[in-house]
Amino acid sequence: MTIKKLIFNTLHIIMLLAGFTAAAQQQSPAPAPTLEQLRQSALENNKQLKISEEKVLESEALRQAALSQFFPKVSANGTYLHNSRNLQLLSDDQQQRINNMGTTLQNNLTDHLTETLSEELNFDPVFLRRIISRIGTTQAAADLNAIGQDITTALNIDLTNIYAGAVSVSQPLYMGGKLRALYSAARLSGQLAEVQHDKESDDLLLSVDEAYWRVVSLQNKQQLAQQYYNLVSKLSNDVDAMLEAEVATMAEVTQVRVKLNEAQMQLTKANLGLTLSRMVLNQICGLPLDSTYYLTQQPTTAQIQPTQLPEMEEVYSHRKELQMLELGKGIADAGVRAATSMLLPNIGLTGNYVLTNPNIYNGYQNTFAGMFTAGVVVNVPICHPDAIFAVKAAKHRRNQVQYQIEEARDKIALQVSKLHFESLMANEKLAEAQNALANAEENLQLANESFAAGLASTSDLMQAQTAWLAAKTEVADAEIELRMNRLYLQQATGESQVNEN
């Protein structure tokens, strides 16, 4: 009962997994893409790579913006104001006196002459005033009154509508090195964005290679599972025939059938794993997830000749991480210079053309008039403690980047040494797996011959088949491990693209 229950449960799981595999395999396989085609497709469709390209363009625009700070800036401004009251420089009483100054002068003169003549000539004052008033009434009083009115009118400033405009030009001469520091930081930021883009491209190509060879590995394991299933299926048919010939027991038949179910389960798992891995590769390369194809390239079975450790200084010069840190240090240096500029004088030229209405260049008139101005602006910091501490903070940031560079160099040296050692171990592992496979194949051949001659039991043959399957699997894993170790070592030594060989 236990064996029957095991068989029932195994068949139930196989049916569930086979349903998904069959659905995934309904499409006819597409032509096999090459590794280079998949790489190119990934580079063209990856969204993160497009984002990094936009960052490169953004950095270039910022560099041009920093460069423009060296050139003059021209700006225009305009203003209009409406006021509810005008400007009156004299009081109402003062205006009244100035407006009537001719009349006042004439009256004072008449009074003075009347008083003088009446005292000297003993004339009647009323008579004299009448005569003097008729004689002294001249146009002079009216003229003086008109002059007074002109004066009061000129001192009443019309501010109802005011128009003003200016065109300004400014040119920095010396900003304490701030502009050069900002331009240097912008230029280095652009280079940093380009290196970051290259690194993301390399990482993407590595992920494509990883997914590609994973699919190749699972294809091989799927073929191996199919071969193993065929072997066990043939053995099951042979044992069934032997049972009919009464040279095998029912226990042996059941034992072989259990092994056949296990082989079927392994084949289904291999098909499912291949489908999922192919979906991952399609997603990385921007292909439809349900695209099916069979990759024809196989991993190398040749061992890699042991190589010496590469020169670390050459490795350091190729690693994108160190290049980015060095650029970051350059940006930190520019930050120190920019902070120091806050303690240095700033000198600039300025020029303006100012247009106003009303204008005061020829009295006060409600007309447009303007003038040119030019000058030099100098700002000298005297006591700015915040700038001093900003310089110290910038220097500490630069020291942080320097320590990061030193730490990265140590980690890269360790990584390269570790991968070089793993490469040597992968060679030995592949050689051992190939030797084990040769022994397993020979053992399987002898077991088949012995079983056919009746000298070996069913258990002995199934044990030889299982050993052969394990040896083949170990060789397949060793080949892929060797391939991936070569990829990782190439990336660790700073090669810009992962090679296919």
Describe the structure in brief.
With 501 residues, the protein is of the alpha+beta class. The protein has helices at 2-24, 35-45, 47-67, 92-99, 101-121, 125-136, 139-154, 178-244, 250-285, 312-318, 320-340, 385-452, 458-492, and strands at 73-82, 87-88, 156-157, 161-174, 346-357, 369-379. The radius of gyration is 50 Å and the shape is rod-shaped.
How does the SSE layout of this entry go?
Blueprint: H1 2-24, H2 35-45, H3 47-67, E1 73-82, E2 87-88, H4 92-99, H5 101-121, H6 125-136, H7 139-154, E3 156-157, E4 161-174, H8 178-244, H9 250-285, H10 312-318, H11 320-340, E5 346-357, E6 369-379, H12 385-452, H13 458-492
Antiparallel strand pairs: 1-4, 2-3, 4-5, 5-6
Helix pairs in contact: 1-9, 2-8, 3-8, 4-7, 5-6, 5-7, 8-9, 8-11, 8-13, 11-12, 12-13
Features:
two-stranded antiparallel ribbon; 501 residues; alpha+beta; rod-shaped; Outer membrane efflux proteins (OEP); 13 helices; four-stranded antiparallel sheet
Question: What does the model show?
Answer:
By secondary structure, the protein is α+β, with helices and mostly antiparallel strands. It has 2 domains: 2-71 and 175-344 and 381-492, Outer membrane efflux proteins (OEP); 89-157, no CATH class. Helices cover 69% and strands 10% of the residues. It has a 4-stranded antiparallel beta sheet, with no helix packed on it. Strands 2-3 form a two-stranded antiparallel sheet. The longest helix has 68 residues, at 385-452. The protein is rod-shaped. Mean pLDDT is 84; it is low at 1-27.
